Structures are given as C-alpha cells and as structure tokens.
Amino acid sequence: MRKTTTRLRLAGALAALLLSAGAPVAQADEQEPPTLAELAQRHGRYFGSATDNPELTDEPYKAVLGTEFDMITPGNGMKWYATEPQQGVFDFSKGDEIVNLARANHQRVRGHTLVWHSQLPGWLTSRAWTADELRAVLKKHIQTEVRHYKGRIYAWDVVNEAFNEDGTYRETIFYKTLGPGYIADALRWAHQADPKAALYLNDYNVEGIGPKSDAYHQLVKELKAQGVPIDGFGLQAHLALQYGYPSTLEDNLRRFSRLGLDTALTEVDVRMYVPADEAKLAMQAQWYRDMTEACLAVRRCVGITLWDYTDKYSWIPAFFEGEGAALPWDEQLEPKPAYFAIREALK
Ligand code: XIL
Q: Which is the catalytic residue, given 68, 84, 145, 161?
C-alpha cells in the first residue's frame, strides 16, 4: 500500500530515463521518489489534502491520499450539520473515520470547522434565538466537538468566513445575535477544550492584501491585545485563472507572521473554465508553483493543504458552473503539470 500508482509511474519514468542514459537500473528500483509530504518536511512544512467520507471506498484514491500527504482535513465530516444534526445529539462518526484513517497513515489532521454560517443544521437556522440561548448553543457545540477530538487535532478552523469582501463583518446568525465578540468567545471556548490545538481563523479571498485581509489583520491585532488565544490565519486559496494571481500573497503572509501568527494555505485549488487545455494547465501549474514558493519564503507559513487532490472529487464543478480541473491530479488520478510544478517548488 505504500507505493502509490503515481510513485510507480514516476519511478518507471525515472528508470526509463536512466536506462537511456546508460545508468544502472538498480538505482531507480531502490530509491522511490520522495512524496510531497517528504519534500515539504525538508522545509519544516506539511503538505496536506482534504478528503470526504464517500470517497473512502475508492482504493486507488486512498492509496495516494495515504502516502503523498502528511496532513488531512475532513471536507465535510466535522461541520455542524454533520456533528450535531439534532440539538444536543452529537455524531462524530464521519470525522472519526477520517481521523482514524489519518492516524493509520501517520498523518496529522486539521479540524474544519466549528463556527460557520454555511452547512448549519436545520434546527439551528429555522428558529430565532436570544443572545443567551445562542451563546449557550455555540459554546456547547464548540466544546463538545473539540473535547471529543482532544489531542488528535493539530489545528482547528475555529471561525470560518467571518468577513465580507469589503472588510465588514458578515451578517451571520452568530454576528447578528451575539455581535462581533462571538469570535473571541469561540476561540476562548475552543482553547479551554483543547489547550494544545492551534486555533485559526480561516477565509477565502484573503490571499492578497486588500480590505478583507486587512480586516483580519486588524482583528488579530485586537484579539492578541486582549489575550485571546489565536495561533493562525488560514488562507483558503480557492483561486480561479480568470481572476488573476494574488501577487501580494507573500507580503500578506509575512505581515500576519509579524503579528506572531502561523499562516497556512488551507483549501488550495485553482479552477478554470473547462475544458482544460495545455495553456490553462501550464498557467495553473505556475500558480501552484508560485503559491508553494510564497509559503516556503515565509518562515511561519506552516503548510499547504489541497481541497482534495484529484479532479475526481473536487467540489468546483458542483459549485461553479462551467468550471473545474482545479487540482493537481486529474479525474483518472494522473498527476497534472501542477503536480510536477509543486514538486519543483519543494525541491
Ligand atoms: C465545501 C465542500 O468541499 C463541499 O463538499 C460541500 O458541499 C460544500 O463545502 N470553503 C470552505 C469549505 O471552508 O468548507 C468548503 O467545502 C469550500 C469553501
């Protein structure tokens, strides 16, 4: 199970190359090419992938998932609708399955996500709550989930997507009922439940410097000044070729480092209008290379997670009409130019 098809193919290609160069084949047989995780580890970083429970019956998929990466994020299994489907009735079976798989493969886990306006259970969204009621519901949800996974989660995305594009607070049920203080409360409650887990705020469209990432920068400063436990800022990095590359990514990562925070690229994909062609795949590869290099250039950028690794299980086609081909492996689990670009950046 340790040899993935990808690695076998790479080894095969290498053997052919060495043969044609007249080098002994034995060398290629003995040395498997390093995985993305191994390459990242040489820089003190991790390289991860999201996964989701329905995919875990796909053995070739699981083989690559289990070898190429050293960090796993459940794509859905730890969200509120999955973990507390009825008020006060918790179900951790989906998250457990992924945590157990990660453990079997010697991988760490990013927990995703405790507080988010999306994928909430119906019982929570279909009625009105007083501030006291909702505060109690939120605290219980956070602490029950974090306690359940105590010691098994490297980092939690405690609050996901708290800001609008213009840097104002997103008017979620939590913000509207509890005010902006719900973020500090959520971080404190999570910290009480697992003091060793790193606690993150996480969002999209915050890769470059702009109103939305500025809002996080300001919020983190305030949280730090108030002694609120906050360890990291997660940049989802759901990029799209038609919107251009966020050229201020490295500077942005650096300014959060200067606040004493870890940063991570937490949900990376680079979508395009399909069908893909050679030019689009080349540009996509360049973006993956640039993102990887930006993270490596900033000491406190701790790692990169793909939002699943293969186009076979990408969320993009279902959410962005006419778009896809966003990940470094194609639908047949064959590595694309982006995969080789990441490897080169990590070398
Ligand atoms: C996505 C999942 O990948 C899909 O399977 C699900 O239907 C919707 O959510 N930002 C996030 C992730 O923080 O939780 C989202 O995941 C993608 C966008």
A: 161
Q: What is the pLDDT of residues 101-121, one digit of tens each?
A: 999 999 999 999 999 999 999
What is the residue whose two structure tokens read 């509207």? Answer: 176
Residue of 92, 98, 68, 99 lying closest to 6 (CA atoms)? 68
- Please tell me the distance from the alpha carbon of residue 145 to that of residue 72, in angstroms, as a whole number: 17
Is 80 close to ligand 1, i.e. is its CB under 6 Å away? no
Cα(first)–Cα(last) distance of the chain, in Å? 25
- Residue 267 among the catalytic residues: yes
**240 and 323 Cβ atoms separated by less than 8 Å:** yes
Kind plus residue range of the DSSP H or E element containing 67: helix 59-68
Minimum-distance ligand 1 atom for the alpha carbon of 79: 14
pLDDT tier for residue 1 given thresholds of 50, 70 and 90: very low
Name the closest-CA residue to atom 14, ligand 1.
Answer: 75
| Nearest atom within ligand 1 for CA of residue 266 | 13
Structure-token match 């605290």, residue found: 139
The residue type of 14 is L
Between CA 344 and CA 11 the distance in angstroms is: 16
Q: What's the length of the chain?
A: 347
Q: Which residues fall within 8 angstroms of residue 93, CB to CB, at 6 or more apart?
A: none
Question: Which pLDDT score, from 0 to 100, does residue 32 have?
Answer: 87
What structural domains does the chain harbor?
1-33 (no CATH), 34-346 (3.20.20.80)
Instruction: Give the containing element (helix H, strand E) for 103.
Output: helix 93-104
pLDDT of residue 237: 99
| Pairing of β 238-240 and β 262-273 | parallel
Q: pLDDT tens digit string along 189-226?
A: 999 999 999 999 999 999 999 999 999 999 999 999 99
pLDDT digits (tens, 9 = 90+) for 127-164: 999 999 999 999 999 999 999 999 999 999 999 999 99
Average pLDDT over residues 261-290: 99
| Burial of residue 12, with CB atoms counted within 10 A of its CB: 0-12 exposed, 13-18 middle, 19 or more buried | exposed
